[in-house]
Amino acid sequence: MKSVEQHISDLLGLVAVPEPTELDLLRAHGTVLAEPVVSPVSLPGFDNSSMDGYAVHAADLADASAAHPVRLPVVADIPAGDASPTAIRPGLCARIMTGAPMPEGADAVVPVEWTDGGTVEVSVDRPARPGSFVRRRGEDVHEGATVLGAGVRVGAGEMGVLAAVGRRSVPVRPRPRVVVLSTGEELVEPGRPLGPGQIYESNSHMLAAAARDEGCEVYRHGFVGDDPAAVWDTLEGLLVRADVVVTTGGVSMGAYDVVKEVLSTKGTVEFTQVAMQPGKPQGFGTIGPDATPILTLPGNPVSAFVSFHLFVRPVLRRLRGLPPTPLPSVRARLATEVGSPEGRRSYLRAVLSEPTAQDPVPTVAPAVRQGSHQLSALADANALLVVPEQAVALAAGDLAEVLVLPRY
Length: 408
Known about the structure:
The chain is of the alpha/beta class.
């Protein structure tokens, strides 16, 4: 059996970072920038007011107080978006709205709350410092500054920055197109009646959701039975819409492991065993005229779930233009004893607690049901507890490695 690390390396060798594509802003949401973004403008682009109030000469208000307010004539109204030139001489002021350009000569804004709200003459009851409530040109971003770097994921905040500097579109790494397919004669689509010996198909739903959570475009084909010709015909028909194919089921040592039977003679697909539990049987390679990568995962639901996060996720990250980093890891104190087969690394579904001020080391509690077919603990699990190959047991209170599962 090969190591987990070697299998990850083999899978990453199947894919490369794709060439950039130009997308408009809304379509770029969730993608990864292929190039740095340089601002062609300053933000703000002009001095403007940060409050509704009055643009003044601060020196005029040096002696203002509640007992002795200063009264100033109001000689202009300046709304946001006003492009007409306005100048304010000492001893005068202008009513100004938030975001409106500062008039020439004025060096401060007094909020309307400091005044009586006058429109012809205003009474101000406190002094103002030069620069008060004024947003200076370029104080956020200078023209020519890099506002976002290559490799940054375009989220809501990044979208706001791109729009603010006037970008209508950006070069990004295209979303990977992931096709998900399950195999098995016993499978039934959820919502339909079950017959004897049948189960509801859950793996493709789970894997499609996991790939979508990773920012991919996902096509869930559903499932196909155990007829080799039907499996190959289905796979060939799906390649046109796939940058990577993920299958689940049919990769072990059984008589009806159809994926292994079909793909062993197609493309460059190799089947192997990884020194881990769950998820020991794995397959990978390329198929079709464009050498489309295919990752074949075990059929047991938990095996497929763990395999996705250990193996498929790094591949998808590379295809997105992100570093193919593993799940984040922390050290945590075991709440109870756990066991593992010698020579295999176990990944146990677990609940990781938050550290506290009293105990900065988090606690991890493994799920009671750890069978590779037992899905029920997945919804509650937020981590995978790692038991290394050389250990057959870890005691309560031991520190252990814990992989933190993503939450969306």
